[in-house]
Amino acid sequence: MSLFFQKGFSSLLVLLLLSPYVLALVQAPKGDLNLEGRWMWPLWMGARQAALSAVLALVVGGILFLSLRACSSYKSFRWVRSLLLWPNLIPPLFVILSVMSLSQWLGWSHQGLMWVILTHALMNGGLVALAVFAHDQNQVQKLSEVARVYGASVPRRFFDIWLPQMKSVLIPNFVLVFAICLTSFSIPLVLGGGSLTSLEVHIFQLIRTEGAWSLALFYSVIQTLFVLVLSLTLWKLKGEDTFSESYIPPSRPLPAVFLGVSILPILVLSGFWFLSVAKDFTILFYDPAFFDFLQSKDFLESVIHSSLIFILVFWIQTFLSMGVIWGGRTGFTEGFLKGYVSPSVAVLGFSLSLLPGEGELWAVLKTSLCFSFLTFPLLFKWKNLSRWKGLSHQVTVAKVMGAGGGTRFWDVLWPQMREGIFQTSLIAALWSLGDFAVSSFFFSGSKTVALMVVDLLNKYRLEWASLISFALFAVGLLLFFVFQKGLESVRR
After folding, report:
1. What is the DSSP letter of 420?
2. Are 364 and 308 in contact (CB under 8 A)?
3. pLDDT in tens, 237-257
4. What pLDDT, in 10s, does the model give residues 97-117?
5. Same fold, 1-20+287-492 and 32-272
């Protein structure tokens, strides 16, 4: 495969991912960009929310780190690691339901900046804790142990060794969480209560309510470029690998009671929802109206649409990953995937809605494409980019030995990368089950299960919404478990 063909194919893939922005630029009226008034205010409010969320995530991550330091075996480490990663893998719809259940239990309103910041911090605190632990076991433990042998006190070891050493991991993780929270859409849209807590929500409102395409694109470009700079900065800082499974037992683990700290994020982000489901199930079990609703035509249509989106997202993600790898690793493709982490949900949704095609099947296809374009860069960078880079030596050897492009892909790259590709495709497909933000751009009414849940919430049927969401959540878990078992059997 020639270098010219590699670059050409890579450019086509990049253009495909950027095509929604091209459509939006074509759609935007010329010369209607008006920057009068407080046009900087949305930028400031979005940045403030992201910064506060990132700071609180660092604090939460520091607390959760204690549970990792209490692990005395690899088995306990894997359990705690799974508990800390779990909140980041829960679709936003389920997180929102749990926060609403918690606020209902406390007797407070579920809307406001406080809930947005707290939810973001709990969702991302586990990522920070794992990165801190990875740096601690690789760099800090040895220095701290030497200082302890020479008689240094605990406060001195903390302030003179641990804290200065942790700057190199805390700064890149602050940047990472800031970028994630800056582009957050679903959680600020519902929990923000109409206040300006996210630039993404403001872009959405500009297009939907005001039709101000040029201004929305202006904010979107600024946001995308800012996230690009943050992502490249994060890559340069080279923080610890959050998802690494390497484990070195601490020389002096904390008491086992600290293991319980790891359950706090899940308790808040899903525990109260589970409790409300258990309570609502006993009530709805004797409610014939609920069972009539489950047998209605509208509900069955929503299940079919969600299932089709699940299947399409899985295969679109898979083919995108295969296309990137088959096109060959070039500096252009790698640099793009490093920086293009989280595109604008609002611009993606509205621009793809401009494509020709009417009807529900077209809406299913557009939703699947939009959701795949939204999640692919982040998931590929998380799971597959470093693995792809690590196989470059084997690819070079195969090329020197005369293997063609197809042979290098099917015999070298694909056998070693298919597991990671299928896992990220499955995660994206599972996320799509709980998506209501993207699908709302293409469907009118409750045409997916997630949209139906949101409609029930708007009608104050929290009990029905919680129980249906729990069933959706259980199906997703079952699919993930079956898929993992299938991958293990193939690996053996």
Report:
1. H
2. yes
3. 555 555 555 667 777 788 888
4. 888 888 888 888 888 889 999
5. yes
Our CA angle for 120, 60, 86, nearest 5°, is: 60
DSSP 208: I
Which pTM was predicted?
A: 0.80
Query: How does residue 1 score in pLDDT terms, banded at 50, 70 and 90?
Result: very low
**Owner of token pair 């920070």:** 128
Identify residue 396 by its one-letter amino acid code. T
CA-closest candidate to residue 196, choices 113, 93, 119, 114: 113
Residues contacting residue 286 through CB under 8 Å, at least 6 positions apart: none
The pLDDT, as a whole number, for residue 332 is 66
pLDDT value at position 252? 75
Q: How far is CA 55 from CA 49, 63, 173, in A?
A: 10, 13, 10
Q: Which residue ranges make up each domain of the chain?
A: 1-20+287-492, 32-272
Residue of 329, 332, 372 lying closest to 352 (CA atoms) = 372
Q: Say which CATH topology domain 1-20+287-492 has.
A: MetI-like fold (1.10.3720)
Phi, psi torsion values for 488, nearest 5 degrees: -65, -40
238 phi-psi bin (left φ>0, alpha ψ -120 to 50, beta other): left
Q: For 32-272, CATH number?
A: 1.10.3720.10
